[in-house]
From TrEMBL:
This is WSCD1 protein. InterPro entries: P-loop_NTPase (IPR027417), Sialate-O-sulfotransferase (IPR051589), Sulfotransferase_dom (IPR000863), WSC_carb-bd (IPR002889). Belongs to the WSCD family. The lineage of its organism: Eukaryota, Metazoa, Chordata, Craniata, Vertebrata. Pfam families: Sulfotransfer_1, WSC. Residues 140-232, 238-328 form the WSC domain. Keywords: Repeat.
Amino acid sequence: MARTFFRLEKFLRRTQFLLFFLTAAYLMAGSLLLLQRSRLVIQQGPRGTAANQALPVPERMAGVGIMDPQMLQNPSPRLLVGMDAMQEPALDQWHSPRWLVSRNSELRQLRRRWFHRFISDQEPVQTAGWKAMKHTTEHKGTYVGCFSDEERERTLKGAVFYDLRKMTVSHCQEACAERAYSYAGLAYGAECYCGNTLPATSSKPEECNSECRGEKGSACGGINRLSVYRVGARPRRSVIYRGCFRAPENLTDTFPASLIQPNLTVEMCSEFCSKKEFPLAVIPGQECYCGFPTRRFPLHKGADRQLCSGTQGRYCLVYQTPVQDTRCTDRKFLTTKSKGFVALSSFPGAGNTWARHLIEHATGYYTGSYYFDGALYNKGFKGEKDHWRSRRTICVKTHESGKTEIEMFDSAILLIRNPFKSLMAEFNRKYAGHLGYATDRNWKSKEWPEFVKSYASWWASHVLDWLKYGKRLLIIHYEDLKQNLVPRLREMVEFLNMTVTEDRLLCVENNRDGNFKRSGAKQKDFEPFTQEMKDLINRYILTVDEALRGRNFTGLPREYVPR
């Protein structure tokens, strides 16, 4: 009897171990199968899947993706991971109280997922044969040929544009013609370059085999190859007056090009400098010089315009031409993984995207993001599609707060903006995207008071959490960055352990706005905050100011002071 019981006990022990082993093996096999399937989907994306095509997602995952499927027009259990998935919801959807979910829940809906990587920046879409690609007369410009496009020796450098989803030959031609350039060149299926001089080295026609992202069957260059068109330049846009400045001691050493002509006018000088592809037209007396902002001529200390009315040439009038300053537009991923994991943290609406623009152009490296924003990716922020933990980017955008999310990073640049301005900017973004303004109807709706009540506390808790859990912080105030861009940007670059030249920083300052200024009708003297809202926000301002000073940081700027 004892032996029988012993055998039974031994059998049960073996069975328990066997069941445990089989369960573990089953879970591992399922995980490997899921990863293998997802890898196949990702690899097939650039070659066999259009940028705006939906990728299938298992039904059990439909609720944890980038967007809530109920917000999509198509109620099927598929999750759009292309650019279309990032569009703003319809206006009537915001009038439901369901949209005002907790801040962390809303951010999780935007969180990056590993399966969103449907486009490869390393491999432009290519067709099986170059003969299928079109260089036809359907386009307004005249096709010149396929040319080599080495970044260090780039000829078409008057202006650079990106459209990583909808680039077409006509779009590039119109952009270059509008800025009065003679040639338009397309590369990598999504990049557009403008200039007045043809590239020196021609290539074989079949090497321009990248299909335009927004025009099937049309060639948009290739890898280090440009499809070049001659375009009909339109009349130049008006130049922008930059001010009166003291002229440098040696004009010819400071400025690469010059023109001396009787009866010189601003239009003549601007036209000359634009053709020479310089962003500045400088007029001391009756002479014309072209160049860039440099250490010798930084454009930081303006003078009274009356000083420029003389003919001695000690002071000069400076105008901005339509030409883009391209000395700082080249960007790439880090060649080796960064040792430090740095966050670029801010409350939504505090200028994080603008700060990324400045950092990328100053350092020459892409910034990453904890989320995936198709609109930003389409504007040239290629780090949007890179996994946020890849460490191939110089820093990572995040709006997250909380102990766990903060302690993932080794250090952080904490960007703080006036909460009144931040709340309005974020409300504008929710209703009109990154570059638009909310309407009167939006501001007068019941959603605005609810938005302020919920988001004002988040503005304070975001700063307080980073002060409490952040390991190494650099505090940057948005208003200070706008007013003192070069010194604050230099401070940010040094915090990132990067070294850049003064001329590159001046180039960034010359391109400071990028493509991120809001457009549309802006309301003048508009005050959306009630006195109750102001009292609430003012209490948060005082709390954050006290916390900053308690950590030996500079307090909030004076303009934050309670109204």
